[in-house]
Amino acid sequence: MLPETHFRKMNGFVMSSDYKPIEIDDSFFLNLAKITDDVIVKPAIYSRGGKKVERFIFTGKYFENDKKIRLGKSYLDKVYKDNYIVQQRIEQHSILNQLNESSLNTLRVLTYRSVIDNEVKILGTYLRFGNPGSVVDNVTTGGYALHVNDKGKLADFAINANLSKMFYAGPTRISEIEDYPDYDQIVSVSKEIANLHPYQRVVGLDVVLDKQNCVKLIEVNTYNIDGFQTCGWPYFGEYTDEVIDYCRQQIQLDD
Q1: Could you tell me the pTM of the whole model?
Q2: How far, CA to CA in Å, does 24 sit from each of 15, 77, 88, 115, 141?
Q3: CA distances from residue 125 to 25, 63, 252 in whole angstroms, order as listed
Q4: Rounded (5°) CA angle 76-139-152
Q5: Distance between CA atoms of residues 113 and 102, nearest Å
Q6: Domain 94-254, what architecture?
Q7: What's the CA gap between 221 and 206, in Å, rounded?
Q8: Is the C or the N end of the chain the one with fewer CB within 10 Å?
Q9: Of 15, 67, 7, 9, nearest to 32 (Cα)?
Q10: Alpha-carbon distance 194 to 205, whole Å?
Q11: 90-139, pLDDT tens digit by residue?
Q12: CA separation for the pair 153, 176 (Å, rounded)
């Protein structure tokens, strides 16, 4: 379910996808090019807002980003230091490409483990997409947030960082884009993932449907997950009263 990892660095140690120590040099990247010509590099810790997420494409001799900077040990050490991950770029579903082809347009799924029955509920979802040419879809880096209802239908407009309504994604009118594909599968998988985090009442899952109609988990967020309200919907929705009652009970217990 996770993107394929080619190699990583953890606390200063470079490791293979199966966590075995490795050395990276020019020959390493030439061998990597025999496996893939398109990778994503991103920080492994303290990552937020799509910062330092870069795409590198093999040009025949080197992996290069859009600024023609080569991917190599010195660049990784300088920019990403002791913690990063290098993964295979995911090819998203064709419907998501209508919003923007260059960015991976993820669906943020907010889940809530009820304080009453301890069952995982779906608070709601919203779709993010980036500007043309952007690798990331985060609103804070110029992207847009688009509400998706519980049937997978997209709203007629998206919201940017200035809270302005945007009715077009590039040349495409958002209201003319089809429903999110296999939305029921997204919901089902998201509940499974949330159940693996029994210690967390609320999580924000970044998922995407790839071109093979498989759900890919990009990230699990446990804080600063307020984008749902940016789209104009109450955070806890129908579960608001039970959350308020629970908080009141905790305050009384503390007193």
Answers
A1: 0.88
A2: 9, 11, 17, 48, 31
A3: 42, 35, 33
A4: 115
A5: 34
A6: 2-Layer Sandwich (3.30)
A7: 8
A8: C
A9: 7
A10: 8
A11: 999 999 999 999 999 999 999 999 999 999 999 999 999 988 888 888 78
A12: 11
